[in-house]
Amino acid sequence: MDHRTAMARDLDHGQPPDGAPDEQAAQQHAPGTEPAHHAVHISIDQVSVRYGAFTAVRDVCFDVPRNAITALIGPSGCGKSTLLRTINRMNDLVPGATTTGAVTYNGEDIYAEGVDPVEVRRRIGMVFQKPNPFPKSIYDNVAFGPRLNGRKRDLDDLVEHSLRRAALWDEVKDKLAQSGLSLSGGQQQRLCIARAIAVDPDVILMDEPCSALDPIATLRIEELMKDMASEYTIVIVTHNMQQAARVSDLTAFFTVDMDNERQERTGVLVEIDDTDTIFTNASDPRTEAYITGRFG
Ligand SMILES: Nc1ncnc2c1ncn2[C@@H]1O[C@H](COP(=O)(O)OP(=O)(O)OP(=O)(O)O)[C@@H](O)[C@H]1O
Ligand SMILES: [Mg+2]
Fold first, then answer.
1. What pLDDT digit, counting tens, does each position of 201-260 carry?
2. Which of 26, 93, 185, 238 is the most buried (most CB within 10 A)?
3. What is the CATH architecture assignment of 6-30+40-291?
């Protein structure tokens, strides 16, 4: 099977390839009768990541539902960022990192031979902890990705659409030529979201997107995420328990497993469930201990 071609076909139609599990799941429900997020968008199967000889996360398995917000929580060093980066092959860019297991997106293994990681990252965008606009105008920040992809026509419309989608348009429409760096932190983060949206992804990964922002800007981004979930699948790493409880549909709790013999600390997934269940009735005592602040 030519995976590159299959992924290109998926891009053309914006649909999973024929027979993909999520398409079948979606077809089982009449429109409007079931939450859209019952369909699987990304499947993480036995994923482990090593940095050299050190295993940072081990044997992680879970499904990410389409058009929902999945939160990854857990103590520092348990591999949340590492795992997030496996979902769009960002770890490929980290020297010494090796990923094993399978990450399936729309029914296709994104690590299969012939899959172009650049295309994967276009479909599965990323927003980082620290807002990182390019030292360019607001307009050029948003137009950057589409231009790189060869788009020349209707750039104005695309820039406006992306900025509107990121709830930033009204604040910047009269100063599109100003530097992106002239904006406030919260505006810069929304600019980065607009920049991610501009290349038309359908999944957005966010690694602690609000940790550098004040409470008002944080709530603004949270509102935006909830609004975006109708159109995008979102996976967010957060240290903020209230944030996970406020915005996410599902929560995955990770912890660090200590191997005393090898003196190695490896991240493992403890459990994943509906956010309400994780916060009120978790299966594993370690989850409750972390959420209530008794550990981690
Ligand atoms: N580039 C790298 N090279 C070597 N080890 C790394 C690298 N990046 C992360 N690690 C190690 O992998 C483990 C998991 O790190 P990771 O950054 O994924 O954790 P995290 O859960 O995101 O932590 P935090 O909550 O502090 O952001 C840690 O032990 C870390 O030191
Ligand atoms: Mg991290």
1. 999 999 999 998 899 999 999 999 999 999 999 999 999 999 999 999 999 999 999 988
2. 238
3. 3-Layer(aba) Sandwich (3.40)
Summarised one tens digit per residue, pLDDT across range 129-185 is 999 999 999 999 999 999 998 988 999 999 999 999 999 999 999 999 999 999 999
Alpha-carbon gap, residue 47 to 41, rounded angstroms: 16
- Quick check: 251 and 71 in contact, CB under 8 A? yes
Q: Residue 3 contacts by C-beta under 8 Å, 6 or more apart in sequence?
A: 108, 109, 112, 113, 114, 115
Measure the CA–CA gap between 216 and 201, rounded to whole angstroms: 27
Q: Is 48 in the pocket of ligand 1 (CB under 6 A)?
A: no
> What is the best residue among 48, 54, 82, 85 to mutate for testing ligand 1's pocket, by most ligand atoms within 8 Å of CB?
82
Contact 68, 37 (CB under 8 A): yes
pTM, two decimals, is: 0.88
